[in-house]
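Q: What structure does this chain adopt?
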Amino acid sequence: MQLTVLGATGPTGQQVLQQALAAGHHVTALVRDPARLPQREDARVTVVTGDAASAADVEKAARGSRALLSALGPGKDFKSTLATRTAGPVLEAMAATGVRRLVWLSALGAGTTAQRQSRLQAGASKLLMGRLMADKGTADDRIARSDLDWTLALPVMLGNGPRSGAGGYKGLPLDSTTGRVGGRINRADVADFMLTAATTEQWNRQRVILTSH
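A:
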């Protein structure tokens, strides 16, 4: 399957790209600096240089793909508006190309989902990342109002441990489960979820909390 990945040079995006290639998929990666992409010479990877905040650049990268996976992240910028700057262009590009499947990496704590965080993590998010989480929530709501076949991934705190597979983490539908959720999940497992969602009908038009067992 041909997939488009945004944020492929980041820690979660790299996991998505590596796992996609291992599963036999071909990937188009939209990156600002191709030199930062370890797989740039891989014949299965098409590199498009551009900005995810540009609808024209995203359209170029998305054309011909079956699904688009956004693993974009703000790095250490806790005041980033990256989510709202890219959500509109991504939706515009997908409408132009006819690509309907979108898997979008957000976070538990984005917008109103803070009420589902553990009290400790909710307090830390509000104190340190209030603006970032509000921005993510605004972008999430815009995506959820679209007519695309979207899935919003809402991981708890992220770790860098090995991939444990579907049996090693939980996906909890935001709208049909209750209670506060804490803990940690490895980026490799977040990538596993995103790739499964992108290549199956599972989790279509759902916001899904991700945490370890």
